[in-house]
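G.,

No rush on this.
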Amino acid sequence: MLKGSLWAMLAAGVMMSIGCGFQQGTAESSSAAKGGLAVIDLDVVAKSIGRTQEINESWQVRKNALDQALQKLQANFNEQLTAKKTEFGETPTEEQTKQLAAMRQDAANKLVQAGRTAQGDLEKYRQKMVADFRAEMRPYAQQVASSKGLGIVIPKNEGFLLSVDPGVDITADVISAYAAKSPAAKPSATTAAKPLTPAPAAPAETAAAPEAETTR
């Protein structure tokens, strides 16, 4: 049976900061703006409205689906290898021994590719969820910034801004604006999209799912 852990590749950097890459307001949507910068901490917004939990739950469901697919591939490979060993008997010939080794190596190569495919699928899924959240928050940020006479909205994240005047931080105002228009709590997004089906391979033993964090 093959040993290893492809899911270790997925454990690092599961959820990057939601705030990274947030776009500034447009002139059309900020016609009342007089200029100046508004600052928003989208990670705080996400946690406050429950979106961080939704994203983490949805990511976990997606990860579990891919995990199960890899385990199924591993079981299929082990069955094939066991059948071949039975066919060769307890004392396989040198040629048969080489054939078994080739089967293991081929399965290992395909397993690596399957793991990379799953990793790419999970990362694209994460990026889409974060992008959807940014797009949802953009009009609220533009509205609040415009009402304060601020023309551009930038994300507040560690290492980017040395200091922020409380007067231009619109995080709390955006949370309030969202709550005013969406008072009812939205259900958690726990439905996973259909996972990719990698080429038949021998999946490795899977690592425990990491605790998904939206802010890292």
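When you get to it, here's the other one too:
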Amino acid sequence: MANFETAFETTMHAEGGYVNDPDDPGGETYKGVARKRNSKWEGWVDIDLLKQKPNFPKNLEQDAPLQEKIKNFYEVNYWDKIQGDNISDQDVAESIFDFAVNAGPKTSSKLAQLSVGAKADGIIGPKTLEKLNATDKKTFLALFALAKIGRYVNICENNATSRKYFYGWVRRSLEGV
């Protein structure tokens, strides 16, 4: 079965650290946690306090309680929602998890379901898990990458400001293929 720790480390490498990009609809972001979408996340209190100390934002990485909050946030709100512990292949689980972090667990689950021919309801349950665990890994990863890229094309067609993120999204989509 897939391992959260490994998936988390891989995704955090892709997410980076603190960013406050005015073009990002999520606004201020730390390791992929967007303040506008997760305003009640308890880590924002820590970040606001650390802004007042020297070496911001580098000081965020040394704050162990904040790092634990990040890890817990992703395990509960993303890994558990995609049933990561029940996916047999690590690469498949990591791809679904990483896209969940980028696009939301429901969207990632729907595209994963479409990629294996399951009912696309956005909830990975026993039937989807059965299909995910029985599908050829390379086939799944290729179909899932194409589905992700299609979604990104759609986003960019509807929002010209998002085009600056397109190539990074595509690169990230193809890394696990």
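The chain has one domain: 4-174. The two ends are 19 Å apart (CA to CA).

Enjoy the weekend,
O.
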